Amino acid sequence: MGKRLPILSLSIFFAFAGCGATGNTSGSSDGQVDGVHVHADADTDGLCDGCGASIRAQIDFYAINDLHGKFDDTYANIGVDEMTSYLRNAQATKGNTVVLSTGDMWQGSAESNFTKGRIITDWMNDLGFESMTMGNHEFDWGEAYIEANESLAEFPFLGINVYDRATNERVDYCEPSVMVERSGVKIGIIGAIGDCYSSIAEEQVEDICFKVGDELTALVKAESDRLRALGADMIVYSLHDAEASNIRHYDLGLSNGYVDLVFEGHSHTTVCEKDAYGVWHLQAGGDNAKGISYAQVSVNIITDEVSVNTAKLVYHSAYAGMEDDPIVDELLNKYGEELTQVNEVLGQNSAYRNSKALANATAKALYLAGEARWGGDEKYKGKIVLGGGYINVRSPYYLPVGQVSYGDIYPLFPFDNPIVLCTVTGSRLKSQFIDSNNYYVYYGEDGEAVKNDLDYNETYYVVVDTYCANYNFRGMGFLPIAEYYDEAHEVFTRDALAAYIRNGGLDSLAI
């Protein structure tokens, strides 16, 4: 683990250039101190005024955002094996490399979810990541799993603005920043999460808060000042929630001397552009569907001037032909027993299903699961109106023709939101479900009858998941949960779809 290359010290770096020491030459007109040449760069051209040697250190940054556990190759997603080979080659040939993450690394694939992110954390250890910023989906399983991965990680988790509500102190599993060094250049990396509450199940962040807006700006400025005082030559901001073309949670004032380079995440957009102060912002899409962000930076050792030589997105095509790195198979074997269910064959899919078709199928699957679980109970008889809700199909957003495994449907519905039966008044049923353009629903016979003869004051039941139940629709509060599908063993939306496919449901459903 931690296959890192040795870092060249400044003395070695300049020995290669044929010179001795570095520093200012004030009081020494010939550029000598005690007979030893001292580098100087009064004209800030990156060359020593006395000997002409380069006094710039070159650093290559690689940032990965929103991987969402896309670890192994599937019918639709490329894995990390070729990317790993590419990054190892960069580490071996360039020397001064820094690899970091801007969050949402774990949640999203069967391999990662079954191991609660450990397989990804192990991979990051092996590749020598310097840091990982907390993303919103790191909180999907609760703080206990963040803490477990933090204990496994050989790099810090960054979250300068992740605070405990009770103590108003930063949570123990997050650091505000980390300082790394390459060829004598000290690099401060500050990590933060934006205002991402709407993308997290509310019960998972009851005890924590994210300081955003002016509070976040103040925290970052103070940390930048602290790192500069400790000798940082440049500051990298690793932010989960921003984009330069639509800046929401990034305060442009940070680019005025506090931050030299910004790597972003969360929005899954492709961004590679300068802001008004000339600071580069980079984000390389999401779900490992695009590639990685790259910036080559030169730092003048004398003047501390930071200049970005190259800023670009490195797309999959740059490394698709490289030999697979063995770490993927090694880790799949390591966690093999935990991943047995991934390869379970569920059935056949007779036609290509896009995201809309899959959402409709899943709404029906939820309804059928609810009927099987609660339909025989007298208190619910005739009142289970529908199954469905806010069904958001994730990458790769489709299911091809052919054999379907559990691992195939997992990334479509990766989030662990248990199936629940909720009570709803007739009036809320109409506004939130019947009249909604954002929900996918399936009505059984009883549901169709209720819809056609709706009593606004009556109480009905809907089969949804906890994400839908815990959404405060138009300020009405959460949907009251009558029962969980299984109190002892959580059953999720994807499990309802899996049962539906096992029973041949896809072949009976119109496309």
How is this structure best described in words?
- The structure is a single chain.
- The chain has two domains: 289 residues, Metallo-dependent phosphatases (Purple Acid Phosphatase, chain A, domain 2, 4-Layer Sandwich), CATH 3.60.21; 164 residues, 5'-Nucleotidase, C-terminal domain (5'-nucleotidase,  domain 2).
- Helices cover 25% and strands 24% of the residues.
- The protein has 14 helices and 23 strands.
Number of strands: 23
What fold name stands as the CATH topology of the largest domain?
Purple Acid Phosphatase, chain A, domain 2
Largest sheet: 6 strands, mixed
Quickly name the level 1 CATH class of the largest domain: Alpha Beta
CATH homologous superfamily (4th level) name of the largest domain = Metallo-dependent phosphatases
Helix percent band: 25-40%
Provide the spatial order of strands within the biggest beta sheet: 6-5-4-3-15-16
Contiguous helical run count = 14
Whole-number total of structural domains: 2
Contiguous low-pLDDT stretches (5 residues minimum) are 1-30
Shape: elongated
Beta-strand portion reads 15-25%
Question: Mean of residue pLDDT?
Answer: 89
The CATH architecture category of the largest domain equals 4-Layer Sandwich
Query: In angstroms, what separates the terminal alpha carbons?
Result: 47 Å
Structural class: alpha/beta
Task: Draw up the topology in text.
Layout: H1 10-16, E1 32-33, E2 36-37, E3 56-64, H2 81-94, E4 97-101, H3 110-114, H4 118-127, E5 131-133, H5 143-152, E6 157-158, E7 162-164, E8 177-182, E9 185-193, E10 208-210, H6 214-229, E11 234-240, E12 261-265, E13 270-274, E14 280-284, E15 291-300, E16 306-315, H7 327-334, E17 345-349, H8 355-374, E18 384-389, E19 402-405, H9 406-409, E20 419-425, H10 426-434, E21 440-443, H11 445-452, E22 459-465, H12 466-469, E23 481-484, H13 493-502, H14 505-508
Parallel strand pairs: 3-4, 4-5, 5-6, 9-11, 11-12, 12-14, 18-22
Antiparallel strand pairs: 1-2, 3-15, 7-10, 8-9, 13-14, 15-16, 17-19, 18-21, 20-22, 20-23
Helix pairs in contact: 4-7, 8-13
